[in-house]
Amino acid sequence: MSLPMFEVERPQSLGEALKILSEVKGAEPIAGGTNLMVDMRKGTHRPRVVVDVAALRDLHGIEATGPEVVIGAATTIAEMLESPILMKHAPVLVLACSSFANALIRNRATVGGNLVTAAPCSDTAPALLTLDAEVKLASVRGTRRVPLDRYLVSAFSTVRRSDELLVSVRFPIPSATAAAAFRKMGLRKVSCMAKVDVAVMLDADAAGRCTNARIAIAAASPIAVRARAAEAALVGKPITPEAIAAAAGLTAKAAAPRAGSEYKLSVVQGLARRLLAEAARALERGGTHA
Amino acid sequence: MPNKRKVVLRVNGRQHELALDPNVSLLQALRDLGHTDVKNGCEIGECGACAVLLNGKAVNSCMVLAWQADGAEVVTNAGLGTMDKPHVIQEAFADAGAVQCGYCTPGMVISTKALLDRNPDPSEAEIREALSGNLCRCTGYTQIVEAVRLAAERLRDGQLAVAAVAPPTALLKGERVAESSRSPGGPGVAAVAPPTASLKGERAAESSRSPGGPGVAAVAPPTASLKGERAAGSLRSPSGSAPSGHEKRGDRR
Ligand SMILES: Cc1cc2nc3c(=O)[nH]c(=O)nc-3n(C[C@H](O)[C@H](O)[C@H](O)COP(=O)(O)OP(=O)(O)OC[C@H]3O[C@@H](n4cnc5c(N)ncnc54)[C@H](O)[C@@H]3O)c2cc1C
Ligand code: FES
Ligand code: FES
Question: What is the CATH classification number for the domain harbouring A15?
Answer without folding.
Answer: 3.30.43.10
